[in-house]
Write a structure and sequence with these properties.
alpha+beta; 2 helices; binds zinc ion; about 80 residues
């Protein structure tokens, strides 16, 4: 898994690592993967950080962040 991934690929990587589906704010389990209009869904969290997937709870809007390289089984780049 590298570059932009569809929601299922990201969800499968999280399931393989036993990431909980429950929103820590409202307890529901419906998430959306944020992306740009051209389909990019990995974002720099800050200028020096590795890119990350941003998922938003479809019930309350809470946003969670997962470093893409970690989900892909790699060590994240040192800042
Ligand atoms: Zn929520």
């Amino acid at each position: 898994m590298s570059g932009s991934q569809p929601f299922k690929a990201v969800a499968d990587a999280m399931a393989a690592k036993r990431v909980t589906d429950k929103c820590p704010m409202c307890g529901t389990e419906r998430w959306g993967l944020l992306s740009t209009s051209d389909g990019e869904n990995q974002f720099p969290v800050v200028n020096t950080a590795p890119k990350a997937y941003l998922l938003t709870c479809l019930n309350c809007g809470f946003v969670r962040t997962h470093i893409a390289a970690v989900l892909e089984g790699q060590e994240p780049e040192a800042p």
